[in-house]
UniProtKB/TrEMBL annotation, chain A:
InterPro entries for this protein: 2Fe-2S_ferredoxin-like_sf, 2Fe-2S_ferredoxin-type, 2Fe2S_fd_BS, Beta-grasp_dom_sf, Cbr1-like_FAD-bd_dom, FAD-bd_FR_type, FNR_nucleotide-bd, MRET
Highest rank taxon of the organism: Bacteria
Tagged with keyword Lyase: no
Cofactors required: FAD
Location of the FAD-binding FR-type domain: 2-104
GO biological process: phenylacetate catabolic process
GO MF annotations in UniProt: 2 iron, 2 sulfur cluster binding; flavin adenine dinucleotide binding; metal ion binding; oxidoreductase activity
Pfam families for the chain: FAD_binding_6, Fer2, NAD_binding_1
2Fe-2S ferredoxin-type domain segment(s): 266-355
Protein name, entry field: Ring-1,2-phenylacetyl-CoA epoxidase subunit PaaE
Automatic annotation (TrEMBL), chain B:
BP-aspect Gene Ontology terms: phenylacetate catabolic process
SUPFAM superfamilies, sorted: Ferritin-like
GO-annotated cellular components: cytosol
Full protein name: 1,2-phenylacetyl-CoA epoxidase catalytic subunit
InterPro entries the UniProt entry points to: Aromatic_CoA_ox/epox (IPR052703), Ferritin-like (IPR012347), Ferritin-like_SF (IPR009078), PaaA_PaaC (IPR007814)
Length: 355, 256
């Protein structure tokens, strides 16, 4: 199961004005031997609310470090904190590396990779690129890197160094939205039309084996459409949607804050394995998470309202069940709820996991 | 390049999601349901088959059955790992369910899921010996092939990739079943085969679900499904009829 491990921050370096590269070292345990292109999910408390954010690893397999790139997003609690307050010596919590934005490395193979990155979408692509170039001496990599202007290009110098290190095997095409370049082709947005033009004049699309795309949604759609039109199949196109649209964890908070006067906490009593425990829990928290947080070994498996492992009986009070794909109507009528999906509505709830 | 778009527009236009962090909650619930159905069906299928390994009439048959058990369990593992990335407790998930549970053999087709797992309804029925297991594996294998074809282009990329690995193995299991049925017929067990076909046909047929689900359009818009249950069912009817015909058998006459 995914759980969080402490990592110590050993270095924080600014790459551009509003982005940092954070170097991390596991403190005690956790398997952080990543695969190129994977990401880490961090958690951090802001004013009592836990925020989870995922950031791609930008280091290559042979760099000998664990590094993520974090670009500041307007109004983003985590990215602002990482850019302004995070410093060497601090400890931060993350889950083990996850994600499948990669293809198998084989030193014998001679593949032509084509990567597309938009802005901070460069981070996983950089990890893949470094690893492929170092571990597959016969493969080539072409990177199309979209940015607003020259001064927002993350890892610009590092890319130049890589080009020199792997002479002839790495091609980098910078496409800039607002800064004019010598060649018109390299100005503007990377969309289906731009890709088409690049494939006509600059990139031999027929020789491409695998394509990696990481960037904002419209850019990915445009590129994928162009790649498909040029004969690439779904299993040759790897997407990584970067973290622009992250989930609604904070949404609940906003809606409950709007309730104003109503108390934000609930007195909960939970019976399990024959004994009852009482504690105060937040109404923005599921009954299951509250139980787990209070060191109760509550049963659960999917946490999505599907598997019913976390079923319990509500004896007192009211809860709102966000999703229920597992309980039958008669069970709900009898007072059974899925604790992973249940949020308290009343100031007191009593549930029993033993029934 | 900070321009973004609404995630539902992105999905409706064929976009792919790649990790739990950018998955909206409704999508997450539907995806988890699809993945849980797959995992539970594979685990229940493997558990059912494990019991018939020793019923195999020869060493080749037992190897085939054991391989099916191994690979179905491994397929379940691949998708369960993805569920784990969403926070599912994967260890507890596997231990929690009694995967060998079955309903009485004479339960009518289409009975709703038993207990609290998400396996397809057909996997609630018990296998009655080797011939029965091979026939069930053939008819169900063809159904699985049709159903998995839906997920090869799932908008959740890690799931689509897991299915791309699982699908060829499932196809091989179906081929093994077809070879097995052929052998049984050569051995003169045609009547037993026919009885099993009559038993399993309606039960596999029911596993496609009936009628138009109101969620169908929503699932299509999310890129989690592309065809309707009826379209998948028709595809299976065609494939299964052809497979039986090749074996000199007919599909049961009066049934769906």
């Amino acid at each position: 199961m995914a759980r969080f491990h402490p990592l110590s921050v050993t270095d924080v370096t600014k790459t551009i004005r509003d982005a940092v590269v954070v170097t991390l070292k596991p403190v005690n345990g956790g398997d952080f031997d990543f695969i190129q292109g994977q990401y880490l999910t961090f958690r951090q408390n802001f004013d009592g609310t836990e925020v989870r954010r995922s950031y791609s690893i930008c280091a290559g397999k042979d760099d000998g470090v664990l590094q993520v790139g974090i670009k500041k997003v307007e109004g983003g609690a985590f990215s602002t904190w990482a850019n302004e307050a995070l410093a060497p010596g601090m400890t931060i919590e993350a889950m083990e590396p996850m994600g499948s934005f990669h293809t198998p490395i084989d030193p014998q193979q001679a593949k032509n990779y084509l990567g597309f990155a938009g802005g901070s979408g460069i981070t996983p692509v950089l990890s893949i690129m470094k690893t492929v170039l170092a571990r597959e001496p016969r493969s080539t990599f072409t990177l199309v890197y979209a940015n607003r202007g020259v001064n927002t290009i993350m890892f610009r110098e590092e890319l130049e160094d890589l080009k020199n290190l792997h002479m002839g095997r790495l091609t980098v095409v910078h496409v800039l939205e607002s800064d004019a370049q010598d060649i018109d082709l390299f100005t503007g947005r990377v969309d289906a039309g731009k890709c088409k033009a690049l494939f006509e004049h600059w990139i031999d699309i027929d020789s491409v084996d695998t394509s990696f795309i990481c960037g904002p949604e419209p850019m990915m759609l445009g590129i994928a459409a162009a790649l498909r039109e040029h004969g690439l199949t779904d299993d040759q196109i790897k997407f990584e949607l970067f973290a622009s649209a992250q989930p609604g964890r904070l949404k609940r908070k906003a809606s409950s804050a709007a309730n104003g006067v109503a108390a934000k906490s609930t007195e909960a009593t939970i019976t399990m394995d024959g004994s009852a425990r009482s504690f105060t829990m937040n109404k923005d928290q599921s009954v299951l998470d509250a139980a787990l947080e209070n060191a109760l070994d509550a049963p659960y498996a999917c946490k999505a309202g599907v598997c019913s492992t976390c079923k319990c009986k509500l004896l007192e009070g009211e809860v709102e069940m966000l999703a229920n794909h597992a309980l039958e109507d008669y069970e709900v009528a009898q007072g059974y709820v899925l604790s992973c999906q249940s949020y308290p509505l009343t100031d007191r709830v009593v549930v029993d996991f033993d029934q | 390049m900070t321009e973004t778009m609404d995630i539902s527009d992105y999905l409706a236009q064929g976009g792919r999601l790649t990790n739990p962090a950018n998955v909206p909650s409704r999508y997450r619930a539907e995806l988890m349901k699809i993945m849980a159905t797959f995992v539970d069906s594979e685990l229940a299928g493997a558990a059912g088959f494990a019991d018939v390994i020793n019923a195999g009439p020869g060493i080749k048959e037992r190897i085939a059955a054991a391989r099916i058990v191994l690979e179905k369990t491994d397929n379940a593992d691949k998708v369960l790992k993805i569920m784990g990335e969403f926070g599912a407790n994967t260890d507890r998930y596997v231990d929690h369910h009694p995967w060998t549970d079955r309903l009485p053999r004479d339960t009518a087709p289409g009975a709703s899921r038993n207990a609290h797992d998400m396996r397809l309804s057909v996997l609630n029925y018990p296998l009655a010996g080797w011939t029965d297991a091979v026939v069930m594996n053939l008819l169900m294998g063809l159904a699985v092939g049709v159903q998995l074809s839906e997920f090869l282009s799932s908008s959740y990329q890690p799931f689509a990739e897991a299915i791309r690995e699982a699908a060829p193995r499932e196809k091989r299991h179906t081929e093994l079943a077809a070879e097995g049925v052929e052998r049984l017929i050569r051995q003169g067990k045609t009547n037993a085969v026919k009885q099993s076909v009559a038993y399993w046909w309606p039960r596999v047929s029911e596993s496609f679900g009936t009628g138009v689900s109101p969620r169908s359009d929503a699932l299509k818009a999310m890129g989690l499904r592309s065809k309707s249950n009826a379209e998948l069912h028709d595809a299976w009817t065609g494939l299964a009829s052809a497979a039986l015909e090749k074996l000199g058998l007919e599909r049961p006459a009066t049934l769906a």
